[in-house]
Design a protein that fits this description.
Layout (H helix, E strand, L loop, with lengths): L5 E8 L3 H8 L5 H4 L3 E7 L8 E8 L2 E13 L3 E6 L4 E10 L2 E9 L6 H10 L3 H25 L1
Antiparallel strand pairs: 1-7, 2-3, 3-4, 4-5, 5-6, 6-7
Length: 153
């Protein structure tokens, strides 16, 4: 199976965009939300376009490092970071709604996923179809965790 160019889910959150943005833009806390991310270490103090991160990811007992760079940072609207090793872009988009905020998380592969990443996924993570299904489930779970945090605040 070839890689999906877009994996995306949205959730309605009963909190204003500013509250949701405060959670989403704090990349140091990504490990609290994402079931795949163990830790995201921000290199530098403030997050903005160009900020680099070192990440530790997991799938069960398996662990692997990646890095990323913030490519879009529009407060209370859009945060996106690119993972160079696999050429994917992860995006959080916030849209005001009548009851608060619609938060959308996506994983895009605008120029396809790198061959190296596909080989690693095939050899260690159950293949593309299984891995991307886990990414889709992980996005849903991440959104649910962010919703719970935002609505509890």
């Amino acid at each position: 199976m070839s890689n999906q160019p877009l994996i995306q889910h949205s959730i309605e959150i009963a909190a204003p965009p500013a509250a949701v943005w405060a959670i989403v833009s704090d990349l140091r806390r990504m490990g609290e939300w994402s079931p795949q991310c163990v830790r995201m270490t921000v290199l530098g103090r403030e997050v903005g376009v160009g900020t680099r991160t070192i990440n530790l990811n997991r799938d069960g007992w398996k662990r692997w490092p990646t890095s990323s760079r913030v490519v879009v940072f529009e407060p209370e609207q859009t945060l996106a970071f690119r993972v160079p090793i696999n050429r994917t872009v992860w995006t959080y988009e916030l849209e005001p709604s009548a009851s608060g905020t619609v938060l959308t998380e996506s994983r895009r592969a605008p120029s396809g996923v790198s061959r190296l990443s596909n080989i690693a996924v095939g050899a260690a993570l159950g293949g593309t179809e299984a891995f991307e299904a886990s990414l889709s489930d992980g996005i849903r779970r991440t959104l649910e965790r962010i919703k719970a945090e935002a609505e509890a605040s």
